[in-house]
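User: Round two. Same drill as before: sequence, then structure, for each protein.

Assistant: Same drill it is. First protein:
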Amino acid sequence: MKTIICNSVQSFWDMADNHLLEGLDVHCTFPATDGLRAFILDYKEKYAIRSISFTSVGVGS
């Protein structure tokens, strides 16, 4: 299955609104708060996205 990489919130919404993510796996690499992640995951069914995952980045080093 294809995985689409979204580098920004805007790229996610643009592709979702244009039905380019239907039936695909999506991986988001942009920083996302828990609230934003929940908001995006709520739209998974509406946009018929197979799965959505996020890159987790540690805070500080």
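Second protein:
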Amino acid sequence: MSAGDRHILVIGIGAGDPGHLTLAAVAAMRRADVFFVLDKGSEKDGLIRLRRQLLDQHVGTPYRLVEGEDPERDRSRQSHGPYTDAVRDWRHRRADVCERLISEELAPGECGAFLVWGDPGLYDSTLGILREIRSRGTVTFGYEVVPGISSVSALTAAHGTPLNQVGGPVLLTPGRLLDEGIGSADDVVVMLDAHQRFTGHTDEDLWIYWGAYVGTEDEILVSGPLDRVAGRIVELRAEARARHGWIMDTYLLRRSRPGEEPHEEPGDSTGVPAGGDRR
């Protein structure tokens, strides 16, 4: 980076556990002159608070934190075409906010940073937004990405299970596409499922590993045969959303192979065996 260039760091900070922050992420945070945060409203104040805690712990010296208002997204459009149009519109308006922050709050020669939950390359909009801003040509900057521990890795670790079966593929999909079926995939990771579409697959002899707020003090885990635990997950999810005002959850659906049936996992710290739940 030359003395007159703006530079952006996109830093993956893990799924919520401060211990998931990598050494590379800490080093990158210490390079930044300013940290950009999009405010998602009072219901999600905890997300900003967790970022501040990470900065206080690992940056130490006084740092600049600049907040912008995150635009609302139209979540009413669920079919593929309208959904992608709504996301493009939302990203465009997000790019407007981020472009202003970079232009007004990051001087030439300075380094700015976005702290991204999980990994910036997995179902996150930050990289797409930065590409759009650069394509506009109104403000110039370079950027680099520091990977983080994703919610997928955190989920399987919390459940003590591998992500894939021996030699098998893994499908990652947003929840809205689960209604189209899982085809021949033995292992399917589902993210962004606001409508609990797993409830439509209880007749398919699947095992589910589900987690909400994975890696945080509010973590909830449930595992077991889908037809047995789906109702419990729906109840827990509704209770948690009402309590916190928001929810982030991810799950793995597993179809058993001969000789590789999901087996009972060791009990967790509360003594609840697999097929139960942990809070």
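The two ends are 46 Å apart (CA to CA).

User: Perfect.
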